[in-house]
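B., you asked whether I could sanity-check this one before it goes into the benchmark set. Here's the sequence:
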Amino acid sequence: MGVKTWASFDRSGLALSPDSTPLDPNQPNREDIRVYAGIFGEYRFKAWLALFGEVGYLADFTDFQYVGVDPLLDPAANYQRFDAWLGLRVFY
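And here's what the prediction gave me:
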């Protein structure tokens, strides 16, 4: 069993369109705070066979808004994500 956590402050430049022109030159640089927390574990049935799993949560906190992009329904850049993984590990 184990616990994995991290936090980061990320700053990126202007958003560009596919032809490398700024989407909005008046828009400030994007600043995000990202936080992750997760637990994981592994159970070994044999020395060569194990079952493992991980559950995690990732959140991005920012007040950045995408502008000039029509297909986006929600221009907010912040998000929350939950992950759950289960697998079988075989060593040979």
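One thing to flag: The CA atoms of residues 24 and 67 lie 7 Å apart. Otherwise nothing jumped out at me.
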